Amino acid sequence: MTLRLAPRLLDAVRRHAEEAYPRECCGFLIGFDHGGEREIVSVTPADNAETGSPAGRYLVAPEHYFKAECDAARRGLAVKGFYHSHPGAEAVPSEADRAGALPGVSYLIVSVI
What we know:
Elements lengths: L1 E4 L1 H14 L5 E9 L2 E10 L15 H13 L3 E10 L7 H6 L5 E7 L1
Parallel strand pairs: 1-3, 4-5
Antiparallel strand pairs: 2-3, 2-4
């Protein structure tokens, strides 16, 4: 499935990643599916709830996910995925990213080097 988002949304994710540095940032990709494409119409930052290693992992608290889902549903949209940053590393999925990935969910990773 092709993931589409406007440059301004990618810029917002990059700004969030820079502000969170040296911690990983995280947030929600809000949008809808049509045909073989997933259109992201907004991004919503979330707090990184990871306490053990926030520079190398992220965790979205269940209450933040619930709120994001409710807010998206009120707009006729849905949480279609997540974004997070890799401080000081390339924007490629880590072993932890791959192990925690859910089918049908989009993941966007940005690098802050």
